[in-house]
Structures are given as structure tokens and as C-alpha cells.
Fold:
Amino acid sequence: MMCWCRVTHVVTEPVKDTDGLTRRTIKYLHGVLQGCWMLKYEWVAGSFEEGRWLDEAPFEIRGDLVAEGAPRKARLAAQQPNWKRLFDGRSFHFYGKFGQPSKADLESLVRAGDGCVLDRLPPAPHRRDEFSKSVKDTTVFIICERSEMTPELAQELYFKCGRFPVEINWFLDCIS
Structure:
């Protein structure tokens, strides 16, 4: 797995006729979570042609095909002295099976955003055991694949852990 700790720029290709919007990929989402410059390939080509790094701003990706603004907003936030990443103080449990993106990819996004991945469902809030004490000060989200989300599953998870699950798209939309 790639270490994103020293990445400052991510180069991606905008989708044709979208005026600077790209596909939502794991690479794109990692870049947004890290506050990287998200740039069109033309920045690299132009810099090579000029023999120097060009100003990034004219080449910045505006967002993905679902939402606009996240790259710039995240990059500017990351420049602030007391910047906290998106998932700081939040815990996530990925319930069930996942296709694409994989569960490992989703967990890597949580970690990149300084969140915590829970290996098991959290207990209902009224239970007082060591596990609940370790996550009591965080917001916990249960993430499910859309195809597995049913009213029955939502009710079951609510009774087990006192939380309603959310679909994977909600999680990805939070980033972008």
C-alpha cells in the first residue's frame, strides 16, 4: 500500500467536456483527504515544456463527477496551522461484503483521514464495557454496501449497536 504522507501533488485526467472534473477514484479521494494539489496532466506537460514548475492554480481539478470544490477546499484547509483531517475523532466499521472499492481501499481512506477502523460492531450505547469506553468519545459510523442495505438490516444493526448504517456512497460523498 502506498504511503501518502509525503505526496503533495496528484495528477489526474479530467473527463472530456467536463471543464476540470475527474472520475472518483481511490487515488483522487486519497489526494483530497491529504489536501494535495489535484492537477490536470497539462500541468506536467507544460512544466516539462517550460523547463520549470508552472503555477498550479490554472491546472487544478475542480472536483469529481459527483461533486465540485473538494480539491481546493481540502488543499486550503490543509494549509491551516491546526488542520484536522476529515475523519479525525470518528470511527468506522465496514459491515458485510464489499466489491469495488474494496474493503481494504475504504479502510485506507479512513486512515488517511485520521479516522479509526473498528474490527467489530460497536456495542449499543447503554452497554458499559471496555470496548464502548474506548470509542465513547468518537462518532461511529457503520458503512454497508448499497446492495446489502435493507430496512431489515438497518433495524438489526440499530438493535445490535444503537446506530443506523449508512451506504458506501454517503461515505465517499463526504470526502468529495
Notes: Strands lie at 9-12, 21-22, 37-40, 63-64, 90-95, 116-117, 139-144, 166-167. The mean pLDDT is 87.
